[in-house]
TrEMBL record, chains A, B, C, D:
Similarity comment text for this entry: Belongs to the SsuE family. Isf subfamily.
SUPFAM superfamilies: Flavoproteins
Gene3D superfamilies membership: 3.40.50.360
PANTHER family in the record: NAD(P)H-DEPENDENT FMN-CONTAINING OXIDOREDUCTASE YWQN-RELATED (PTHR43278:SF4)
Superkingdom of the organism of origin: Archaea
Tagged with keyword Flavoprotein: yes
Protein source organism: Ignisphaera aggregans
Name of the protein described by the UniProt record: Flavodoxin family protein
């Protein structure tokens, strides 16, 4: 295990046994078995995250750490700051993220706003990937919005940083999606390694070779079976 | 006053004295003085609106009135159902609405989902307009998303249903914005009247004649002065 | 046939035998058999439509009819002006419309810009619906953008004005899509009738009753079979 | 001059003397004086770039180099392939790019589609930044869409890869915009250097120190004065 690579999986799911829950567990397993890293995971629905109060509009200097609101973000800020990369896993609620994930993102303003206080965004140079799942369309409307937001925070978006599943079918059966998830994690990790000087070159980013497909599909199916067992 | 036209102003502002607060009060005054209607206003920040739990993904039949969550939405649903039209007034938080407004929208799913239960969306045919204000860009990213969401609920979008202000300057000084706000309300009201059979024809929608500009600017300045007095 | 209702179908397809072609022919048939109207159809790929030159940025007064560019738009402007409603049928090219459709839209600026010349947009109060088809995701990113653009022209968006198909499967097999297409046309036509004073009330907008499903599916299958015959 | 860093500036402007033209010339000067690189620039309006015909929907294998269409893209593909990074500079035409830029992007599909032919996108790992200018709003709607498209091609988006100017005022007077443009170029170049193994570490990405502001503003004003001279 490479304990020097800190990836934070930020999911938003009121239904842990659903598609978002599957993706979350799949990524954690991919971390262990393929990328050889431990992945830290938080589900924004399980924390008390109050809405941003927009103090920055009163005076840009009001928006500093610790945020004026005393809730679970105080702890989550530390987790975010320690992380090198993020994977957002969101359900598609009306072509957009659900409210609790938006609250989490809005509250990150205090980290970005450091650029106006100390001259540098506290998340500058970190890396992010984006995964959206839903029964119906809207993934790209969600993902394009998240990309622009994160990039405005000073965050790097590595190649192939997006994956989506828009169907009522269980995501494990969507092989393109399974492979894309693995590659989102792979590309985020590669970019983190590059930025930390742990590697100096990336030969290729997206992997679609038979070995990789077979390994990732096997993990996906095992995670899915475990989840089925848990529900039954 | 025409008490047969029910317009609900849905704002989302943690800072009542800011730009959203101005727009809200301005619209209420426009209602009284120009459109001769009373406007009902709610600020989603002042209610207990819990996040949607996505029950619809478990079984589409689970998402029925009253929503499984017992919070202020129980009362707000009645207000929404009684309304003929909506004006959304939102701050721009990272090219998107703030979390509390997204929670409110997600919770409206129970009204739209009636199409799968009873064969008809409970908000079908209602009318909506959209106003976004911020210190920086992003208004159109917000508004285009809201339009597609509301239209997917079965809601009508009348001509010129959008207005935006993206500047640190007080919105009262943005004459284009002031005029656009008045026209958003005007067009929402005209469409409601048309759909309710109270008028049979709209000669023109957007008004930019001298009288109209002068009347609406006068109201805007008076509202602004009142707000300044309140703050000081 | 009601010759007083002019609906213009604007499609954008380099491949007439593909999904866009199917949707186009299906809507024309729905017009005849269900709505009892003739639908005028243009495919922007079959016209010489040069890109907008942005004269409006030099001087807002430069952008007047006839546009400075002498190409097929000169004729198309007349067709647009005579139309009461539009149905846009676009393929999804990278979460957006293809270039030729964007050129067509940009060139419509001359009609909208009349608001600054004569005080009124020449397309104000017309009605539009939006249909996007592709092998992959992106429909909502496309449709939300088109909605905001058209509404900024002063165009009305009736309830349920969107339909999409994101799959390699032939669209005729997507019953939800087939029904949504029929309802996009239905709602555009109803709104045009309301705005023209031909009806005073709409009892319900979206139809999903057995008769309607059966009628529209039958037409869809017949159109599909005809297209298969043409290809073979 | 570091001749090993190839940045391609892709602009889309029918009006060379306008805001896009200023940004283009400013970036070329920043390249020479600040980044010590030569920047290659193309304006899509000056080339014959026919619309994509969507062959990929007939058979994914049909979309290969050289594209079936024999036009200026044949040459532009080589320029794109030789480039390590791209800066897109686009006007905002109705919350979107103008048609000619969309045609250029759609035609790049042949490079991305190599992933299905040879197992790898021909633009994988390249870097992109995005600049949008207009008299009115819409920049973020444009930029978020471009980011998602380019990332789906396998392209890296470095920190702070966006800049926008939404005003009728000449962009040289928007100091935030001038600084953001310089940082878009800076971050694209830093990421290219990192990916090519020319540097192993980036101390900080966004620069807002007095020296940098003063240098970049000086260049911006000189470029602006030169353009004024050319017009007069």
């Amino acid at each position: 295990m490479d304990n020097d690579i800190n990836i934070l999986l930020v999911s938003a799911s009121p239904r842990r046994y659903g598609a978002v829950g599957f993706v979350e567990k799949f990524i954690i397993e991919l971390g262990k078995e393929v990328e050889k890293i431990n992945i830290n995971a938080i589900n924004v629905y399980e924390y008390n995250i109050q809405p941003c109060l927009g103090c920055v509009s009163d005076d840009i200097k009001f928006c500093v750490l610790p945020c004026i609101i005393d809730d679970d973000m105080r702890n989550l800020y530390n987790i975010v700051l320690k992380s090198d990369g993020f994977i957002f896993v969101t359900p598609i609620y009306w072509y957009n993220v659900p409210g609790p994930l938006k609250n989490f993102i809005d509250r990150l303003t205090v980290l970005e706003n450091a650029i106006f206080i100390e001259g540098r965004s506290k998340v500058e140079g970190k890396v992010a990937g984006f995964i959206a799942v839903g029964n119906d369309t809207g993934a790209l409307a969600v993902i394009q919005n998240l990309m622009a937001i994160m990039n405005s925070f000073g965050i790097t978006i590595p190649p192939w940083a997006l994956a989506y599943h828009e169907s009522e079918e269980d995501p494990v059966y969507n092989e393109k999606f399974v492979l894309d998830i693995a590659n989102v994690l792979r590309c985020v990790v590669l970019m983190v390694k590059l930025l930390k000087g742990k590697i100096y070159h990336v030969e290729y980013w997206y992997r679609a070779d038979t070995d990789y497909i077979s390994t990732t599909m096997k993990i996906a199916r095992r995670v899915y079976d475990m989840l089925l067992d848990e529900i039954n």
